C-alpha cells in the first residue's frame, strides 16, 4: 500500500493518528536466530480501522526484505484474524536499499525496521491474532514464523508503543506527484521501460514490485534528458492478453522517496 492510501485511511482516524495521548497494545517478541518480531497497535477507531506496526529486530549482519525482495529472499506475509472474523491488513514499507552480496541482488533492509499496518478490525473485536512470516538472512536465510496475539483492551502498554506506531507511519515514502513520480512508457515481452521525474537525480533509485503474473528483474537506468528512464527486465508475464494490473513502485532520490502505482497490461 502506498503512503497516499495509508494517509487516506489515517485521515479518517483523526484521534488515533494525531493524538499522542493514546495507549497501545503490544504482543510479545517472538524470535529466531538472527532476529525477532512483535506487533504494536493503537486502539481501533469507531469505523474499525486500526493503526499498527510490525517491528522487525535484526542482529548485526542480518537482513530482511521489501515487498519484492529481488533475486533472493521472501517478502513479509501477515494474516490477521479475530474471534469475530478475519481482519484485512494493508502493509506500508519504508524506503529500502538495493544490495549485492556477491551471489545475488536483493532489496530490503540491513538493520531493524518497522512496517506500518492498517488493519480493518470487525466490530466488537477485543483480541487480535497475527500469523507473520518474514525472511531474515545472514549467510543463510531463515523464515521467521511468528504467531502474535494482542489484547486490544490492554491498557498496560502506552506512550512508548504509541510512538513506535507513529514512527512507522512517519518513515513511509510520500505519495508520488507530478514533480516526483514514475510512469510506464513501454512494454514488451522481455522488458518494460519506466520514465521517472524527480527534483534531484542524486542517488536516483527505482524499485518495482512483481505482482500476479508479472515478474520483474532489477531496474537499470537508461538516462533521458531531465528525467531518467529505467529498463526493467520482464522474467514472466501473463500468457494471454490481460486486464490492467496495478504495479507498486518506489522512487528514491536525494534522501527523499515517494511511492505510487502504474497500470500494466499485456
Radius of gyration: 19 Å
Which regions are unreliable across 5 or more consecutive residues at pLDDT < 50? 1-22
Mean pLDDT: 87
User: What would you call the structural class?
Assistant: mainly beta
Question: What is the overall number of helices?
Answer: 3
**How far is the N terminus from the C terminus?**
23 Å
Q: Helix and strand string, N-terminal first?
A: HHEEEEEEEEEEEEHEEEEEEEEE
* Envelope shape: globular
Beta content comes to: over 45%
Helical content (DSSP H or I, runs of 4+): under 10%
| Main beta sheet strand tally, sense and closure | 9 strands, antiparallel
Number of strands: 21
Structure description:
The structure is a single chain. The radius of gyration is 19 Å and the shape is globular. Strands 1, 2, 3, 4, 6, 7, 10, 11 and 12 form a nine-stranded antiparallel sheet that branches. Strands 14, 15, 17, 18 and 19 form a five-stranded antiparallel sheet that branches. Helix content is 10%, strand content 50%. The chain is mostly beta strands and 266 residues long. The longest helix has 12 residues, at 159-170. A hairpin with a 2-residue loop joins strand 20 and strand 21 (256-264).
Question: Can you tag this structure with a few keywords?
Answer:
3 helices; 5-stranded antiparallel β-sheet; 9-stranded antiparallel β-sheet; 50% strand; mainly beta; 266 residues
Amino acid at each position: 500500500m502506498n503512503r497516499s492510501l495509508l494517509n487516506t485511511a489515517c485521515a479518517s482516524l483523526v484521534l488515533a493518528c494525531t493524538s499522542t495521548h493514546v495507549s497501545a497494545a503490544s504482543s510479545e517478541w517472538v524470535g529466531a536466530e538472527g532476529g525477532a518480531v512483535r506487533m504494536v497497535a493503537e486502539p481501533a477507531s469507531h469505523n474499525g480501522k486500526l493503526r499498527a506496526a510490525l517491528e522487525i529486530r535484526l542482529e548485526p549482519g542480518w537482513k530482511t526484505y521489501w515487498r519484492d525482495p529481488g533475486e533472493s529472499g521472501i517478502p513479509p506475509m501477515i494474516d490477521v484474524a479475530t474471534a469475530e472474523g478475519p481482519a484485512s491488513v494493508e502493509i506500508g514499507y519504508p524506503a529500502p536499499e538495493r544490495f549485492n552480496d556477491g551471489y545475488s541482488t536483493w532489496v530490503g533492509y540491513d538493520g531493524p525496521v518497522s512496517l506500518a499496518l492498517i488493519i480493518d478490525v470487525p466490530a466488537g473485536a477485543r483480541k487480535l491474532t497475527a500469523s507473520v512470516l518474514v525472511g531474515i538472512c545472514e549467510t543463510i536465510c531463515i523464515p521467521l514464523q511468528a504467531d502474535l496475539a494482542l489484547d486490544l483492551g490492554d491498557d498496560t502498554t502506552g506512550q512508548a508503543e504509541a510512538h513506535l506506531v507513529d514512527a512507522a507511519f512517519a518513515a513511509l515514502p510520500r505519495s508520488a506527484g507530478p514533480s516526483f513520480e514514475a510512469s510506464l512508457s513501454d512494454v514488451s515481452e522481455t522488458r518494460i521501460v519506466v520514465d521517472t521525474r524527480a527534483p534531484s537525480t542524486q542517488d536516483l533509485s527505482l524499485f518495482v514490485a512483481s505482482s500476479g503474473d508479472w515478474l520483474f528483474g532489477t531496474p537499470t537506468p537508461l538516462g533521458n534528458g531531465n528525467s531518467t528512464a529505467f529498463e526493467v527486465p520482464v522474467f514472466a508475464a501473463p500468457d494471454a492478453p490481460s486486464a490492467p494490473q496495478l504495479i507498486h513502485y518506489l522512487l528514491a532520490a536525494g534522501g527523499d522517496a515517494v511511492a505510487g502505482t502504474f497500470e500494466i497490461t499485456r
